[in-house]
Structure formats: C-alpha cells, structure tokens
Amino acid sequence: HVAHVHDSHDDGEQHGQHDEAHARGQADGHGGARYGSAGFGEAAHAAAQSPAPAELLLSNRTPEKAQALAQQLGATVSDNETIAQTCDYIFLGVKPQMMADLLARLRPILSRRQEGFVLVSMAAGLTLQRLGEMAGLSCPILRIMPNTACAVGAGLTLYVPSPEVTEEQLSAFLTLMSASGRLEPLEEHLIDAGSAVAGCGGAFVSLFLEALADGAVTCGLPRDKARRYAAQMVLGTAQLALQSDQHTATMKDAVCSPGGTTIAGVRALERGGFRSAAMEAVIAAYEKTLALKS
Q1: Whose CA is closest to 145, among 125, 166, 159, 133?
Q2: C-alpha 45: how far from its chain's center?
Q3: Is 6 helix (H, G, I), strand (E, B) or coil?
Q4: Fewer Cβ atoms within 10 A, N terminus or C terminus of the chain?
Q5: 211: Cβ–Cβ under 8 A, 6 or more apart, which residues?
C-alpha cells in the first residue's frame, strides 16, 4: 500500500473507498509495504512510478484536488486517519508551519498502532529531532528532499534516516522511490545546503531556460523551437557533466573558440553578474531554510 496523505479535514466519507481499495490490492497480489503521505508533492509521483507492487493512497483537504491527482497517477482517494492507521510509510508532505498541527492530530492514531511504521518528512528546515518532538513518539523517521524532476524519473532525492529506521525499512523505501531518479544519502547537517541546489535549483534553471528562449525568440527563432532547443541543450550538458570527469570550466572552455561567438556570450553573462546571481540564489534559499527553523 502506498498512501499519500494531505492535511485534511474532509475525511468522513472516504473510509469505505479505502477498504474497497485495500481488498482490491490484496486480490491483485499487492504484497509490498504500505505507504502513506500527508500533502501532495514529488513523492506521490515517485511512488506512482514504483517498480514495487503497491497501491497509492491520496488525501487532501480539497477532495477535487485529491480526485484529480488520483486519476492522473492511478491512485485511490483516502483520508488521513486511514493512512495513519494502516500504512507502513506515512509521507508528511505539508509545509513546515503546518507540520506540528498535522502530527498532533495523527498522534492518537499512531500511538495506538501495534505494528511498526515510518514517518517520512519533506518539510524544509525541520530536523529529525524536531520532527520527533512534534510527533511526540519514539518512531523511525526519514527526512527526504525530493525535487520536481522526480515526476519524470530524472529527479534527485536526498535522504537521511533517524537511528530507529531499520535496514529493511530503508531498503523498502529506496525500492519504492527508485523510479524517481537518483537517491543519495546525505548527513543531516548538509541537507539544507543540498536542498538549496538540488531542490530550489530547479526553479533557478527554469528561469535560465526561459531567459535563453526569450533571447532566441528575440533573434527570430519560433517560441516552441526556442524552448525545446534550450531544454535539450541544458539536459545534454547536465548529462555530460555527470557522465564525464571534466570540470565544468573545461566543458565551457571546449565550446569557447578564440574570438568566437560563445566567448562573446560568456562575456555578456559575466558583465551581467551571472555567476554571482546564481551563487546568491543558492545562498538566499539556504538562509531562508535556516530561518524556518527559528
């Protein structure tokens, strides 16, 4: 069972739907771990692509949103209570400022459970220790930071488990998320810095792509071609950076012929403070994450 829970107050009429779905899952031979999450996010898309046999449950305070995403992902609409009662993995995909309230409402249900479960948080700035304090329980917790590219199997998910997470629990989780892209363990004190690049960086690159396309359109290229060319160029350059041992400076130099067009463009970027702007964007995102902890 994979369940995705959102902070929801509209939970009354959905228990029967879950019971039926659970019965279907058993009949279809779903023997994997049961997963649940609070809040929509990248993890839901990743779970939907999982190679492991599982059923994805979704909950949202807005039933229409839950139903729409459920249809998109082939999931089942559920509710927070059912997910907290039955799932082995409970994704907490709400905003940091909503986490304490959500966990306070789930605590009575979780405290009565006899079988083990793992809480999985995607909230920026909330440490494993803080999450444990909010939960008010001694239980395994996984802190993860996925990015939007998980939806197309090309994402990066940073993760750190609490000491209570067993090897078996971690292995099952990594199997669930394997179709989302790369999964990389990272020491917790580096998670915020890693997320500023791997998570927030997607927005920075999208802005860069948009600017590249705008420049090409200004030069006369049709918009659809400009967007496609820019995206493919960034994709290919990223693959080259990952698959080769070349430093990015070497990759840049390889394209810049003496007195050529590319070095003229690089000069324009340097004149506009491109490097500094990119660095400051990452640092600003990191500092905002730190501010969320206070």
Answers
A1: 159
A2: 9
A3: coil
A4: C
A5: none
Q: Is the dihedral of CA 209, 214, 216, 222 positive or negative?
A: positive
Helices (H), 49-200: 63-73, 80-86, 96-111, 128-135, 167-177, 188-198
Instruction: Going residue by residue through the chain, which has 294 residues, state the pLDDT in tens, using 9 for 90 and above.
Output: 555 555 544 443 333 444 433 333 333 333 456 677 666 666 666 666 666 556 777 787 777 887 887 787 777 778 888 889 888 889 887 888 999 999 999 999 999 998 889 999 999 889 999 999 999 999 999 999 999 999 889 999 999 999 999 999 999 999 988 989 999 999 999 999 999 999 999 999 999 999 999 999 999 999 999 999 999 999 999 999 999 989 999 999 999 999 999 999 999 999 999 999 999 999 999 999 999 877
Q: In terms of Cα–Cα distance, which of 81, 77, 107, 84 is closest to 34? A: 84
User: Backbone phi, then psi, for 91, in 5-degree steps?
Assistant: -75, 125
Structure tokens of 37? 């999450």
How far is it, in rounded angstroms, from Cα 199 to Cα 77? 27
The CA distance from 221 to 203, in Å, is: 24
Burial profile 132-170: b = 16 or more Cβ within 10 angstroms, e = fewer:
bebbebebbbbbbbbbebbbeeebbbbbbbbebbeeebb
Quote the tokens at residue 164.
Answer: 């209570």
Supply the DSSP string of 194-211, one letter for each residue: HHHHHTTHHHHHHHHHHH
Q: Give yes or no for a contact between 89 and 118, defined as CB atoms under 8 angstroms apart.
A: yes
Strand residues in the chain grouped as ranges (E): 2-4, 35-38, 56-58, 76-77, 89-92, 118-121, 141-145, 155-161, 181-185
3-class SS of residue 268: helix
